[in-house]
Specification:
This protein has a single domain, classed as Rossmann fold, CATH 3.40.50. The chain contains 11 helices and 10 strands. The chain has helices at 7-21, 69-77, 100-109, 117-120, 127-135, 142-155, 172-185, 202-219, 230-236, 254-259, 264-271, and strands at residues 25-36, 43-54, 58-62, 84-89, 92-93, 110-113, 190-194, 223-226, 239-244, 247-253. Helix 5 packs parallel to helix 7 (172-185), helix 6 (142-155) crosses helix 7 and helix 7 (172-185) runs parallel beside helix 8 (202-219). It binds adenosine-5'-triphosphate (ATP) and magnesium ion.
Length: 280
């Protein structure tokens, strides 16, 4: 009998102990550098960004306009190729050259909900057809998936009849809820919400945010929530990451970063939040 304990046998329980203490990492961006343009006009907009998303956690990504938030989102969903660095989903590198089928598969695993739902909803498809396609892109149609489509609509507080109407027949807030329902219908591993409420009136903003926070809890979503509004990020996120001029300058639990920011830039951002550091 061989009684010599192997390294693997010893380390497995240790690994499990770590995993129960902290949710598993689902997505990791490592050293992501992105540049646009050629020659003298070439500009680096992301400089070696590291970011990790853990199962069931929402990371709020903040930073002023032009800091590179949307670019990072596009790298993660494969719309922009980094010049160096990579993104791994469940440990698998998803940033290398890929065939069309692999790209389509990745698009399903990470869903981007953009600022303008017109960009994600086909105006010539009924809402029901769009959600049915998200549920099953191969065998489809609304007729086959009607019950599932209606359940998805109910999840975002829309009537079953919404399935038979076109995106243009809805208000901005309703369209954004449809875009969220469609993204979630794919059952993605990660949701990226890029300024999902910034195009909406403030009352409608609150409605969409409350919906999103409710879904995030009930579905235990792993989410990157991008916004330049720190009050909103604080309401929605477990962790906050701060991007400045393409560099990630701070990342930690919301309570820590909001309570005691380390970076001077984060302090400046926080000072502009109503209800903090002033009488507003
Ligand atoms: N396709 C592109 N070609 C050239 N430059 C680009 C491209 N996309 C983004 N940029 C530039 O990259 C920088 C970062 O843009 P990005 O859209 O990521 O910023 P952001 O943080 O999302 O800003 P906002 O808060 O305004 O949405 C900006 O200077 C922008 O002009
Ligand atoms: Mg943006």
């Amino acid at each position: 009998m061989n009684t010599t304990p192997t390294g693997t046998a010893r380390s497995a329980p240790e690994r499990n102990a770590v995993e129960t203490a902290e949710p598993a990492e689902v997505l990791r961006a490592e050293g992501v550098t992105v540049a646009f343009g050629r020659g003298a006009r070439r500009k680096t907009v992301l400089h070696g960004v590291d970011l990790s998303l853990r199962q069931g956690h929402t990371v709020g990504l903040v930073g002023e306009s032009g800091s590179g938030k949307s670019t990072l989102a596009k790298v993660i969903v494969g719309l922009v190729r980094p010049v160096s660095g990579h993104v791994a989903l469940d440990g698998e590198d998803v940033t290398g050259p890929r065939g069309r089928a692999a790209t389509l598969a990745l698009r399903r695993r990470v869903q981007l909900v953009p600022q303008d739902p017109y960009a994600s909803l086909n105006p010539r498809m009924t809402v029901g057809e769009a959600i049915a396609e998200a549920i099953d892109p191969r065998r489809g149609g609304l007729a086959r998936h009607r019950a599932a489509v209606e359940a998805r609509l109910a999840q975002v507080a829309l009537d079953p009849e919404a399935a038979d109407r076109y995106p243009a027949q809805f208000s901005g807030g309703q369209r954004q809820r449809i875009a969220i329902a469609r993204a979630l219908a794919v059952e993605p591993e990660v949701v990226i919400a890029d300024e999902v409420t910034s195009a909406l009136d403030s009352s409608v903003q609150a409605e969409v945010l409350n919906l999103l926070t409710g879904l995030r809890r009930s579905l235990s979503l792993t989410m990157l929530f991008i916004s330049h509004d720190l009050a909103v990020v604080r309401h929605v996120s477990d962790e906050v990451a701060v991007l400045r001029h393409g560099r990630l300058v701070e990342h930690g639990p919301c309570a820590e970063v909001f309570g005691a920011p380390r970076e001077p830039y984060t302090k400046v951002l926080l000072a502009s939040v109503p209800g903090r550091g002033g009488s507003a």
